[in-house]
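Try this one yourself first.
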C-alpha cells in the first residue's frame, strides 16, 4: 500500500469495525423543511429498520416516521414501539394491479409519489443509518426532487454498457425522450431521495413500470425522471453527495468510510453485504442497541441482538426453503 493510501485510510473511520461519533448538531433549525420520513419495509427488513429508525430519531429528533409495509403479515409491532412511528400497508392503499406490479420488490418506493402520507418526504431504505440532520438538504423552496449520489466519487455514465444495470436496452431513453442526453450524468442510488408528493403522475409512473425494460427495478425509472427533469427544468431537481457504502469493496475508500475530521452529513448504506449472523458491523449494532434503549429495554443488549440474529437467520432459511419448494411444485409433472 502506498504512503498516500495509508494516509487516506488513517483519516477515515470504518463503520464496520468502529462506532460512529455523535452526529454533528444542525447548523440551524430545519424542522419546518420536511413533513416526514418514509421507510419501506418487508418481513426481511424489520431488524435493519430498527437501527435505521433509531438513527433517524437521534439525528432528526421527533420527525414523523411512516413504515411503508409490504405485506399485511409483516410484523412491525416492535418498530411501532418507537415514538412517532406508524405503518401503512401497501396492499391496503393501492389497487390490486398496482400491488401486483410493485409489491415484493423495490418498486414499492415508486408508489410514494402518489400515496406518501407527507407532501414533502424523505424516503430511506431500511438498510442504512442516518448520521446528521438530513433536513439540511430538504430545500423544497428550490427543488421538488432530490436524488443522492456516492459520498465522494460519483460514477458518470459515458458508455451505453454502463447503463445495462438499470435498463435492458439503452435505446429506451431515446424512445422515451429523443432529446434526453444521459452522457455525463452521475449515478445515483435510490436508497435515499427527497420528493414532493404529486410531482410525477400515477398514470405516467405506472406506464413506465409496465415497460419490460428495467433490469434494476426502479433505479432506471428514477434516473430517467431525474435526467429528464434536469433537461426540462420541471420538476426542479438536484443531486446531493450523501451515501457511503462501507461493505462495497468495488468503491474507493472515500466512498466507503467517514472522514474523521470535517465530517459532513452522511448516510451509511449497507449495500452488497448486509449485516447478519456471522457478519456483524459495529455501527449497525450500536444503533440496534440504541433502538432497544429508546423502546425501554436497557439490559442484556448483546444477548438480545444475538437472539434476533439467530431468529433472522431461521426466517431467511425458511423463506429460502419455501421458494425452493414452490419451484419444485411448478416443475413437477
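Now uncover the answer:
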Amino acid at each position: 500500500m502506498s504512503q498516500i493510501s495509508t494516509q487516506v485510510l488513517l483519516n477515515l473511520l470504518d463503520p464496520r469495525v468502529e462506532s460512529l461519533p455523535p452526529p454533528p448538531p444542525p447548523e440551524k433549525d430545519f424542522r419546518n423543511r420536511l413533513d416526514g420520513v418514509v421507510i419501506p419495509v418487508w418481513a426481511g427488513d424489520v431488524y435493519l429498520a430498527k437501527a435505521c429508525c433509531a438513527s433517524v430519531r437521534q439525528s432528526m429528533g421527533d420527525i414523523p416516521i411512516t413504515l411503508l409495509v409490504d405485506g399485511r403479515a409483516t410484523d412491525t409491532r416492535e418498530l411501532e414501539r418507537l415514538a412517532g412511528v406508524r405503518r401503512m400497508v401497501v396492499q391496503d392503499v393501492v389497487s390490486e394491479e398496482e400491488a401486483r406490479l410493485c409489491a415484493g420488490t423495490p418498486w414499492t418506493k415508486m408508489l410514494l409519489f402518489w400515496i406518501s402520507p407527507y407532501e414533502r418526504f424523505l424516503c430511506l431504505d431500511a438498510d442504512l443509518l442516518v448520521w446528521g440532520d438530513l433536513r439540511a438538504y430538504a430545500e423544497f423552496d428550490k427543488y421538488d426532487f432530490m436524488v443522492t449520489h456516492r459520498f465522494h466519487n460519483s460514477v458518470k455514465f459515458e458508455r451505453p454498457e454502463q447503463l445495462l444495470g438499470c435498463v435492458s436496452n439503452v435505446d429506451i431513453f431515446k424512445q422515451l425522450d429523443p432529446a434526453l442526453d444521459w452522457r455525463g450524468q452521475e449515478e445515483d442510488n435510490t436508497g435515499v431521495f427527497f420528493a414532493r408528493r404529486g410531482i410525477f403522475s400515477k398514470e405516467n409512473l405506472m406506464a413506465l413500470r409496465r415497460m419490460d425494460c428495467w433490469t434494476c427495478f426502479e433505479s432506471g425509472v428514477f434516473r430517467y425522471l431525474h435526467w429528464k427533469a434536469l433537461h426540462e427544468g420541471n420538476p426542479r431537481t438536484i443531486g446531493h453527495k450523501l451515501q457511503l457504502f462501507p461493505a462495497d469493496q468495488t468503491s474507493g475508500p472515500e466512498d466507503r468510510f467517514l472522514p474523521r475530521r470535517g465530517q459532513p452529513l452522511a448516510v451509511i448504506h449497507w449495500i452488497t453485504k448486509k449485516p447478519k449472523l456471522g457478519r456483524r458491523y459495529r455501527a449497525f449494532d450500536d444503533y440496534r442497541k440504541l433502538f432497544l434503549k429508546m423502546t425501554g429495554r436497557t439490559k442484556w443488549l448483546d444477548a438480545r441482538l444475538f437472539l434476533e440474529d439467530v431468529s433472522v437467520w431461521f426466517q431467511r432459511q425458511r423463506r429460502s426453503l419455501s421458494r425452493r419448494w414452490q419451484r419444485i411444485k411448478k416443475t413437477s409433472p
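Discussion: Residues 64 and 272 are 29 Å apart (CA to CA). The chain has one domain: 3-298.
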